[in-house]
Amino acid sequence: MPQINRRLLLQGAALTPFIFDFVPQAFAAAGTSTKRPEFTVAVAALPPTLEPARELSNVGTRVTYSIFDTLIRRDFLGSPDGGGSQLKPHLATSWERVSASELIVKLRQGVKFHNGDELTAEDVVYTFRDGRLRGDKAQIPGGKPYFGILADVTAIDPYTVRFTTKVADVLLEQRLASWCSWIVNKRAYEQMGFDAYSRAPVATGPYRVVSHNQNDATVLEAFDDYFLGTPTARKVTFRAVPELAARVAGLVSNEFDLITNIPPDQVAIIGGYDDIDVRSVVLANAHVLVFDNHDKLLSDKRIRQALCFAIDRQKLVDTLWLGKAEVPASHNYPEYGQMFVEGRKLPFDPQKAKALLAEAGYKGEKIVYKTQSSYYTNALEAAQVLVEMWKAVGINATLQVVETSDQMKGNGAQIFNWSNSTRLPDPLGALWVAWGPGGEMQATDVWSPESRKVFTELGRALEAETDPAKRKALFVKMLDAWEDEAPGTILYQPFEAYAIKKSIEWRPTTFYFMDLRPDNLRFPQA
After folding, report:
1. Is pLDDT above 70 for 52?
2. Gap between the terminal Cα atoms of the chain
3. CA distances from residue 63 to 8, 50, 51, 237 in whole angstroms, order as listed
4. What is the pTM of this model?
5. Residue 426's pLDDT is what?
6. 468-485 helix and 301-309 helix, angle to the nearest 10 degrees
7. Sign (positive/negative) of CA torsion 88, 74, 166, 428?
8. Domain 285-492 has what CATH class?
9. Which string of DSSP letters, residue by residue, matches 9-53?
10. What is the mean pLDDT of the chain?
């Protein structure tokens, strides 16, 4: 039996009209609920809320992905790397582009919510209504980067919905398959109210909520009326287990079936058990740093640029991730297809960093980097290496480890870590949603009004443009503006590994979505 090492123990779409008809393939029934196994997942953390558009964190979507469904589904597992971007019908059976700013969606009939209600156009209209995801007083401001572009959503008949956008939108279908687009039950939402619904939501997914406690566990049970077939587990429990050693011990002792957040240096060790398999992906997510340019010292962009030039990202990947993570070509990813900018590269030039510091008149003032120790895999280790890289070019950097996100991002934060997911396979789904006017960093005002104005104007133009060449040119200008202003910088795309009982069939995706639908979670025959 392999030994757990000391580190482990110490841790305690196109604009042409498109119609797509679909009849779901029947999946083999898993038998009666009493014969189906329970499935327990040990995670590093659980979300405070289960309202899917309110809870957009990595730890949140891991859970809510099996509670909710979208109209259109992105086929992540259609690609060997778990990052497919093709779209397929889901709660909708078909959709048709009437124009560049209008989409007609046909709903699947007979789909049931967890409370027995049938899904209708009223639920869809309610999900995307002004006041929930859209508007200045939206209940869920996080929906604005994704659906602020909507002009109207109307029911044509009980099973047909019209979406119209304020400008031509080439990404509307992808938006409906992505973040903030999970369909809620109108009757339950109105009866329960926002806060109660957020704790025990009613949706259409393969599993429904039994209980939720952020500090302990989220318990789900099979929804046997699920439209894609009978769920293969009768019960799913997401257990909060912050310490890696405890997660591994629980997996080895059969307390858990799957555990998350396996560091690269533990993959071979944990995978050495005969009955355990480690399955991994490089995420469509980048770990980033944020620089607060309202800080007196960091208000000089030359110092922020020097911080960027001093980082040897490949060394971080090679030493901390054993070469398994990737350094992207800036905020620019191959999954963008024709929008991907070839030849782009993140800078590493210590001499340039030193020159910028001298030009800025930097005199060794202290710069504090705050991080949480375990929210992101290798966050603390990366922070320790970064501080040394900055010291090597003359930056008086120091590290402060805090317990919560609020402490990390609160008053006096000069540098802190964050992550940006590629939530749509397009620049509007990564750089724009994270750093645009609807994103967290503009909302918290970490970069100057002048620079963000230029960036925002370019992003607005990109949203409304349909010509691929013109869109790409606008994207290049956005990248140039973001890199020059340096409100933050990218470190790498992390490697995410899961350890699971070898007999269980399950594949991860390049998102933190944990797909437990019948076609992706299968158990050995009894």
Report:
1. yes
2. 26
3. 25, 8, 11, 10
4. 0.86
5. 94
6. 100
7. negative
8. alpha beta
9. HHT---SS-------PPPPPP---TTTSPEEEEEES---S---TT
10. 90
* 134, 144 Cβ separation under 8 angstroms: yes
pLDDT, residue 526, reads 52
Q: Which residues contact 410 (CB under 8 A, 6 or more apart)?
A: none
* Weakest mean pLDDT among 45-54, 98-107, 120-129: 45-54
In percent, the amount of the chain with pLDDT more than 90 equals 79
Q: How far apart are CA 333 and CA 424, in angstroms?
A: 11
User: The tokens of 279 are what?
Assistant: 């399955």
For 467, the token pair is 């010509």
* DSSP bridge partners of 472: none
**In the predicted structure, residue 16 carries a pLDDT above the cut 60:** no
- Token pair for 284: 């469509």
pLDDT digit string, tens, across residues 153-164: 999 999 999 999
Question: Can you give the pLDDT at residue 277?
Answer: 98
Q: Give the torsion sign (CA, 466, 468, 470, 475).
A: positive
Task: Give the contacts of 205 (CB within 8 A, at least 6 positions apart).
Answer: 65, 66, 67, 68, 69, 223, 226
CA–CA separation, 21 and 24 (whole Å): 10
Domain coordinates in residue numbering, the chain: 1-11+38-67+205-282+495-526, 68-189, 285-492
350-379 burial, b at 16+ Cβ within 10 Å, e below that, comes to bebbbebbeebebeeeebbbbbbebbbbbb
- For 228, the token pair is 């894609």
Residue with tokens 């208000």: 299
Sheet with strand 366-372: strands edge to edge: 396-402, 366-372, 415-421, 285-291, 488-492
328 is written with which tokens? Answer: 């992207």
Instruction: State the Cα–Cα distance between residues 31 and 333, nearest whole angstrom.
Output: 43
Average pLDDT over residues 178-207: 96
Q: Is a pLDDT exceeding 80 seen at residue 365? A: yes
Class of domain 68-189: alpha beta
Instruction: Return the structure tokens found at 490.
Output: 């990218």
Q: How far apart are CA 258 and CA 260, in angstroms?
A: 7
DSSP string covering 355-402 = HHHHHHT----EEEEEEESSSSTTHHHHHHHHHHHHHHTT-EEEEEEE
Distance (Å, rounded) from C-alpha 256 to C-alpha 243?
14
Q: Could you give the maximum distance between any two Cα atoms of the chain, in Å?
A: 72
Q: Say how far apart CA 328 and CA 339 lie, in whole Å.
A: 15
Q: Quick one: fold of 1-11+38-67+205-282+495-526?
A: D-Maltodextrin-Binding Protein; domain 2 (3.40.190)
Closest residue by Cα to residue 51 from 212, 270, 259, 277: 212
Question: Are the beta carbons of 119 and 184 closer than 8 angstroms?
Answer: no
